[in-house]
Records
---
Amino acid sequence: MIYILYLILAIAVVGISIKLSYYVNLLDRTTNISGAFIGGVMLAAVTSLPELFTSISATVFVDQPEMVLGNILGSNIFNLFVLGGLILLNLKTFKKCFLSPSHKNTLVATIIMYVLVISAMIFPAHFHVFNTNPVSIIILVIYLGAVKMMSSDDSKDEDSLEIEASLTKNQILVRFGIFSIMLVVVSIGLTFATDILAQKLNLGMTIAGALLLGVATSLPELTSSISLVRMKNFNATTGNIVGSNLFNFSILFVADISYSRSSIYFSNTEASNLIIAGLIATLASLLAFQFKTSSRTYSPVVLNSVYKIAGCLAVLSYVLFLRSTI
């Protein structure tokens, strides 16, 4: 029964996410709001709501703090696995697409957050601020700074076509909000289902968070990203994925402040493998964007090779993590 419930919840997440991506694309095409802000902040925050509420549920309701780090790190690497796969499968579209410059800054901020998490795992904090690890506070500050940069990014794809919408901007926002709330409700149910499954399958909580929760809560990013690429909106897709990864790290602050019994930064083999794989995938994505923003400097052959290598590294990093869990 629990397997069927988990599957139903996962399918619900997919369906809701497809609708959210549709409304995000309408906003991007019918308003003057930058694609960086729409994809990197609005859609990223909404598609990361499952990670937020499952992490809160893991600490407050089921008392499984190890699931939090596994959930966040697992979601991040799965998101980059999706991005790498989309680049490889849609190479022509990626080469021609416009990407907001702030996406590269978002990836740099994400790398810094990985380093901060490593430091929190290796060097336990001897003092706390409002019962919170200082690393969590620094992560929140970096996220807010990145959001400010994305909101001030007024770059726009000059080649993108504006479309006629049968809905007004207010109607789009209201429907976007309704489906966002639905996503929250389903996400909380996923946490309880994952906790039961982990105990039933005798999985460690970090692994359960990375595999069961990490993949399930990343379904919004997966489905919305595929939908947006089909709509030829690679910029919003990229912003969704890299913005979601950044938002996911900020969830550590929420989880940390809501859990007072011990630290949420557990040092174990599974978490270490997730961090190594996540760093490799993030650096690979940064490499692709670096060449993308200076594409006129390099020949098409070089660019093709770099994009393929970066995409393969992002995909293989997740595959190698899965292999390490066996």
---
Amino acid sequence: MQTIRVADFEVRWVGDRGPAVVLFHGFGAPGTDLVPLAGALKNERQYVFPAAPIRLPPAYGDGRAWWSLDMAALQQAMMTGIPRDLSGEHPETLPDLRGQVHSLIHAVGERAGVSGVHLGGFSQGAMLATDYALHHRVRSLTILSGTYLAKDWWKPRLAELADVPVFQSHGRQDAVLSIQGADALRDALEEAKVQVAWHPFEGGHGIPPTVLQELDRFLDDAG
């Protein structure tokens, strides 16, 4: 594994041949959080793990974020068990972040020697990956425990993914981002004629081995 700078992002890069797979970590996680996935997936790919630009307070250790969250609202949802609907939220920094990610993806493609990347993420990182894929071409999109964000921004663009393979997984007992939000995103994608490989599982906010096995097959099929 190499730790390098790519387009102003600190990146962990695993592998030196094959398709490029870029995965964004979730809110509060360090830039290394998803690196173990490279060992659980096939090694004939190049795995790229960027660290989010926002450093969180010391209470989060080396935790980072792609954009700020309303932590009080999140904690309230977890305490009450009432799912939090993010479809009406519009992170004000997201449009600028999308541009930064575009520079990153372009630079990754050049360094990897490929014409397009497989893009995905976990939780907040899945939302970022989805938003980017609605504006720029990717080889495939992987949504791990994500949700429907900024519906009035996203819904008019969902048909842009009509010929892009999409993988989506979510835990039925997820207390952080409810499966209802994942269902709503899946339904909206399918309504827009997007082919979604849907993999719900028994569990919470995570990525179980069964999902990784299915993701491996999905990435093989997506080329």
---
Amino acid sequence: MKRLIPLTAAALFCVSFPAFSGETPSPEGAEQYFVNIKDGDVISGPVHIIFGLKGMGVAPAGVEKENTGHHHVLIDRPLLGEGEDGAEEFEYSIPADENHLHFGKGQTETVIDLAPGEHTLQLVLGDWAHVPHNPPVMTEQITITVK
């Protein structure tokens, strides 16, 4: 029983943590962009993507430093903020799965294997805890076709 109380407290902390960590401010004018691809591009796979960022710096996940964040690529999913959870989606950490790629080591480019066909991509900057800033720093969603 004595072990159960600390474990329960730790679990509650982990569950509540993302709810109050979504308030990391972003500076006015901060902008994220795709450097080497644009909406409508037809690309041979694998897809090389270079991430651009203006008005902020890049820092690895876990490093809490003002005006910094790290990149996430959202693939083939609704525009961030327009998913099932709507605007509430911004209050929680970006999930890590095949539709949400994290670059928490501070990477500024990647190569992604995408199946031939049409795909949507969006860049979203996450704070030290993988939560979008307030206001969010992100690109418009683009559509590319992989040959």
